Structure to design on (416 residues):
């Protein structure tokens, strides 16, 4: 029997969706959303089943109406990471997880890319009694880390702002596409937004191309040189388009995700004095534990969609070939069957990383170690430098977004 929800997931945009998820859960672990034209998956077991089997539950971009725009944004490169399936995807994924962004490499990048970016940003805030953590700190951090990872020759404010703007234009498109809002009839406004994203991807290529060309054959430790060095093991004719595409992938996958995650984690601390005190008192191990709970409860990516490639059954619900399932990661992360006190922060969980913020299975986020490093370092340094940090009276933070959501603004006071 397929349960159907009368409300639609679409109506939860720009709100905290957690009570909606619980109403869906009352109907079942897999529930049909007629307006979204997709099955919502809120159960942890069912979510894992989908994410583990990417042959039956296929990454959808290449089959979506938005697929042609995605292809243009990816420079018409059919071997772009997101478009790969099966064994070739596995090879690419292994390279990114075990080599490019492995814990060993991230620990080498921590002192050269992550820590200097954090220190430089916090130094600018020193002495200020009030600031907006989102606009004055959080949004700047991941793009600065990216510029250092790639060792881009320019790292000035104007250049980084330009990179961020181009990334925002692409993100605006991706957000609509992921929410399945580019399927069926598409408005003029949406078409314009898609064109802007394609244009942004081209501008990004123009900025990066000369640097990518110059680094070919270099033995450097920056990501561009390492992409050139390692790519031929995946595709023997690895070329400039592949390297550029991978650079864009790094920017796009790593910037917004980490920005939203940092905002959400800090919002949790700033709105819960007891939690703030516990994290401050517990030092680094407590920050690490807290970051996992923040990712589980409010971890940026609310959901991912998948296309079913054969008639099947999921949590007792029959699903036909071609249908879409929307795996709601942040609902699966609050499933009472999987987590005790699912809505509360519990710093003592036995398996603190056993959540789905970075997915699970063959498409697990390869940037998870880097993201965790940015979050832990970014929070710990901030708390150490600003022992009195608290929310300022006035505008309250609101939860914005749909596929990715975060709280903002975060106006804080830092002085006595
Ligand atoms: C808190 C921050 C982050 C979160 C919550 C996050 C989450 C995710 C999720 C949910 C996916 C799966 C997308 C899908 O298959 O539908 C993903 C994929 C990916 N992420 Fe992350 N991510 C974060 C940071 C990063 C960073 C910093 C990088 C790299 C610099 C990165 C690189 C990637 C790449 C390359 C993929 C594609 C993997 C594939 O298709 O097999 N991510 N991420």
């Amino acid at each position: 029997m397929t349960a159907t929800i009368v409300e639609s997931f679409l109506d939860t945009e720009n709100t905290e969706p957690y009570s909606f998820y619980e109403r869906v859960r009352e109907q079942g672990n897999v529930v049909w959303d007629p307006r979204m034209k997709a099955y919502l998956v809120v159960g942890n077991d069912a979510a894992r089943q989908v994410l583990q089997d990417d042959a039956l539950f296929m990454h959808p971009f290449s089959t979506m109406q938005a697929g042609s725009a995605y292809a243009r944004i990816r420079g018409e490169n059919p071997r772009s990471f997101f478009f790969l399936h099966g064994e070739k995807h596995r090879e690419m994924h292994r390279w990114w997880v075990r080599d490019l962004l492995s814990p060993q490499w991230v620990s080498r990048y921590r002192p050269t890319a992550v820590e200097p970016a954090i220190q430089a940003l916090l130094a600018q805030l020193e002495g200020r009694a009030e600031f907006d953590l989102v606009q004055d700190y959080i949004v700047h951090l991941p793009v600065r880390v990216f510029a250092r990872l790639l060792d881009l020759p320019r790292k000035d404010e104007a250049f980084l702002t330009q990179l961020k703007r181009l990334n925002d234009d692409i993100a605006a498109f991706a957000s609509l596409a992921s929410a399945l809002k580019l399927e069926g009839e598409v408005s003029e406004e949406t078409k314009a937004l898609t064109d802007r994203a394609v244009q942004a991807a081209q501008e990004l290529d123009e900025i990066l191309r000369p640097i990518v060309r110059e680094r070919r054959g270099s033995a450097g430790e920056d990501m561009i040189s390492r992409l050139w060095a390692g790519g031929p093991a995946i595709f023997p004719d690895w070329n400039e388009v592949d390297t550029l595409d991978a650079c864009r992938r790094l920017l796009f996958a790593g910037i917004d995700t980490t920005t939203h995650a940092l905002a959400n984690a800090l919002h949790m601390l700033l709105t819960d004095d007891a939690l703030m005190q516990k994290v401050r008192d517990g030092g680094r191990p407590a920050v690490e534990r807290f970051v996992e709970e923040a990712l589980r409860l409010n971890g940026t990516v609310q959901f991912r969609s998948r296309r079913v490639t054969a008639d099947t059954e999921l949590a007792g619900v029959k699903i036909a070939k071609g249908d879409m399932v929307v795996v709601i990661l942040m609902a699966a992360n609050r499933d009472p069957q999987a987590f005790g006190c699912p809505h509360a922060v519990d710093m003592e969980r036995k398996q603190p990383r056993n959540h789905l913020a970075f997915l699970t299975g063959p498409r697990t986020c390869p940037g998870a170690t880097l993201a965790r490093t940015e979050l832990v370092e970014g929070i710990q340094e901030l708390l150490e430098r600003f022992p009195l940090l608290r929310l300022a009276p006035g505008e309250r933070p609101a939860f914005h977004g749909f596929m990715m959501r975060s709280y903002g603004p975060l106006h804080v006071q830092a002085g006595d």
About this structure: The longest strand covers residues 303-308.
